[in-house]
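Lecture 7 notes: from sequence to structure.
We start with the chain below.
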Amino acid sequence: MSDKTFFLGLGGQKCGSSWIQAYLNRQAGADFGRLGEYQIWEADLGSVFDRYKVPQPSALETLRAEAKRRLGLSEPAAYLRWRLQRDRSQYFGYFERLLAKPGVTMTGDITPSYAALPAPLLHKIKDGFEASGIATKAMFSMRDPVARIRSHYRMDLDKGIAPEPVDFETGLRAFYPSAEAAARTRYDMTLDAMETVFAPEDRFLCLFEELFTPEGVTALAGFAGVPVEAGAGSRKVNARGSAGGISDALTAEIARHYAPVYAAVARRLPQVLELWPSARFLTSA
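Predicted structure tokens for the same chain:
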């Protein structure tokens, strides 16, 4: 195995994954390529992820994109995603070419929706890179499920993905048990898949609530083998404002719905019972 490393970021969504990608990408020897999120593998899952499938470009779009590639220019993001989704050998080749550049030793794909990838797909990614002598390391950041879902719903409202509700709590109450919310909140399933595929030294777990602290930055840097940036936790990437407060009754309802998630995370990181405010609704007498 060479000293080349591919970092596979499994999200989670609204859990600091953009910040992690930005931190790693600005280190010496890093090149994470054209996109912040590649959104390739979740297209295989169907259901709520169908929208990630990129439609085939027109003949004119293809001619323009291929001309840019021949000239060494950046191809359009949608064309790149389509190309890598259509032929996964091109996915591996894309990152292999980044790592073949002089001085580049690490790259990666940190896409929040990858939290839903099952073990067979994680195996496929890991094996694909290891066939070329590239080590693969997995990372996963988790946030209080109620806060994550609340932020996710607010984002969907802002983007017009979710219809405007009568009021925020009414909309959130309908959203939290949906397949869309669950696909990105079942941390227990993500953890099981990671542990099936990756050795302990090749997987990194962190909590959004600790990520931006000096200790959180040090842990991330140590796992990635990069310098610790003092004060890096004060820089937020893709940070959104608060989704607004919700009642204790709805908070408790959401927490109880996702009780297996809290239990699974607490077995690995017991501090969540203190760091996740909504956990109190599961631990109180």
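Points to note: Residues 95 and 138 are 16 Å apart (CA to CA). The two ends are 52 Å apart (CA to CA).
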